Model the fold of this input.
Amino acid sequence: MLRLVVSRPLTVNATVGASGAHGGSARPPWEGSATWNAALRFFRLTQLADDIFDAYRNAFLALEAILDASAPAGGPGGERAWLKFALTHVLPKHGIEIKRYLIDAGGGDPVDRFLDEQYSARRCALFHAKSSRGALLPGVVADRHKVSAALEPLIRLDLDLNRSVLGIIFPAGGMTVGGLEMVMDNLAAYRYEVAVLHDPNPDQDLTRDQLDSRAAQSFVTCRAGRLDSVGREQGFLANAEASSLAGRSFNTIISYTAMPIPDDVMLAPSVPTGLLSRHVLPPVDAGTAEIQVLVRWLLDNRQMPRSRFTV
Done:
């Protein structure tokens, strides 16, 4: 089987403005107060990171910095013991429940579980390189997915502490997971399909009809549902026999709706013919009996802090 995975970001941008009583833009005066803390610098480095390991290290340092600034004096010695002391005192003071930032469901003390998931299994494994103690290695896919699962709740905790302790409110908005699922429902309703083809000039702009004329085989997709635990990745899956591709090569996958999507539907196509994406691959010789195509739609809210990094 030849399995092809295509990632399709769904980028969401939103702008909100306020108008005065006589027209024109108006900005309400800032009535809050903000305090600078080293946690903000570490968090900025998290947002600028290209690698997920670097992003996680700085996100955890941001957590340590803000807890250090707000925890009572006289905590116990030892890193894990101090973190438990700080989390136990700081979070309840600001109405933050640690169980909202756990990766896995289970019983036991939620602070201990958070430290097991974040400090022991990720932080120590990234800050140290002793293979005998379970160090995480760059380039190992399973290790990067392990870090990815922990980074999203860690960033949410950093943001909530920044808001509650420092008075720093980051931009927020965009599409919810429910909105993404409505988009996926619309795609399914308008027959979301993919096709493989040979495109001799992949950098040239082509219409849907021109791409259709080069299609070697089309695939009708079905919903694959959520591909992650929170629903920010949704998928469509297609399987087909490759008999018509025997001995033929292709280097492009297009995804499209078989029927035009009206303008009032949540997802507007990039061109009127319903073409949604065009992905160039290395040349592939389809010498297999079956082809499977998975199209991953990734929700990317550009006006919110990043929580997804290259895995």
Observations:
- The CA atoms of residues 101 and 157 lie 7 Å apart.
- Helices lie at 38-48, 52-70, 79-93, 110-127, 141-166, 177-189, 208-212.
